[in-house]
Amino acid sequence: MTEILHKVMARAKEAKVKFNKEKIQYKVSNVRYMGHTVTSEGVKADETKIKAITEMPALSDAAGLQRLLGMVKFLSTIYPWKSHHNSTSETATKERQCMAMAT
């Protein structure tokens, strides 16, 4: 394992990549990175993102709708089910309905 770490560090040095000593992680089973959790089983959504969606207050305005759609779009990069359930026209219709409720 240390041989691999040495190779990674040497390659990073060649590429002029610098690591933050306080943030670098090694010998861990999962890593949180940019809203994702990377494990040996693959990439998953970070639990804090899921929790943020489930605890969002009820939509009351256009800004709230935009936040929700942004989070759903973010998760759709990991979970392909989103594209199967919402066609573009269906999503647009729901957006208009929510905007009407918000005004």
Shape: elongated
Supply Rg: 20 Å
Which stretches of 5+ consecutive residues score pLDDT under 50? none
The count of helical stretches stands at 5
Strand content: 5-15%
How do the strands of the widest beta sheet line up side by side? 1-2-3
Average pLDDT across residues? 77
Q: Separation of termini?
A: 59 Å
Task: Summarize the biggest pleated sheet.
Answer: 3 strands, antiparallel
Secondary structure category = mainly alpha
The amount of helix comes to 40-55%
Number of E-state strands: 3
Secondary-structure element series: HEEEHHHH
Domain count, please report it. Answer: 1
Task: For the structure shown, list the relevant keywords.
103 residues; mainly alpha; three-stranded antiparallel β-sheet; 5 helices; 3 strands
Would you kindly provide a written description of the structure presented here, covering whatever features stand out?
This protein has helices at 2-14, 47-54, 62-76, 81-85, 88-102; strands spanning 30-33, 36-39, 42-45. The protein is mainly alpha-helical and 103 residues long. The chain has one domain. It has a three-stranded antiparallel sheet. The longest helix has 15 residues, at 62-76. The model has no long low-confidence stretch (mean pLDDT 77).
